[in-house]
Amino acid sequence: xxxxxxxxxxxxxxxxxxxxxxxxxxxxxxxxxxxxxxxxxxxxxxxxxxxxxxxxxxxxxxxxxxxxxxxxxxxxxxxxxxxxxxxxxxxxxxxxxxxxxxxxxxxxxxxxxxxxxxxxxxxxxxxxxxxxxxxxxxxxxxxxxxxxxxxxxxxxxxxxxxxxxxxxxxxxxxxxxxxxxxxxxxxxxxxxxxxxxxxxxxxxxxxxxxxxxxxxxxxxxx
Length: 222
Prior knowledge:
The chain is 26% helix and 38% strand. It is built from 5 helices and 13 strands. The chain has helices at 20-25, 47-56, 115-120, 186-208, 210-221, and strands at residues 6-12, 28-35, 38-46, 63-67, 70-81, 88-95, 102-111, 123-126, 130-135, 144-147, 157-159, 170-171, 178-183. A hairpin with a 6-residue loop joins strand 5 and strand 6 (88-95). The radius of gyration is 25 Å and the shape is elongated.
């Protein structure tokens, strides 16, 4: 049975350069589609629709791009936003071949509760957010779950080799890389004590400088 992917409606784009700003003002987003063995195509999308899709669809999920009635299976490769406002500015899509393996970063999602936290007040170190995998596009997972129930004691750890993945997927990230670990609580306690000592030592100096600091603040506001 053929898989169904989120639909993206697009049209060919004939506006380029500085004139693209008029597209954005009209609620239309400029974009490109490229891929292995195909020419880059300039397209345009409804900005509100694609913004909604980006919010509710995993970044590495396959999408069905409908370009003037001709569907293509794509991945979002690059999203550009205006730095000052976060406004969506441009998107690059990568058209995949369903018969060619690809490499992608897949996010890691922690699940469960580590007994080491409950029993030993351990701190959980999340050392890795994603792993790189290789597979056919149709087998690409949107996420990989990491069950931290396995962290029963302090110093227990989960490495890349311990991850559970589908048989059709190969992890490219080295297997000895650390994913998550239960750390002893003394590390955090020592930091807290040091911070408390620093605050106590700084208190008299802060009191002496209270009035000059306020005056300086007023000068800056003026």
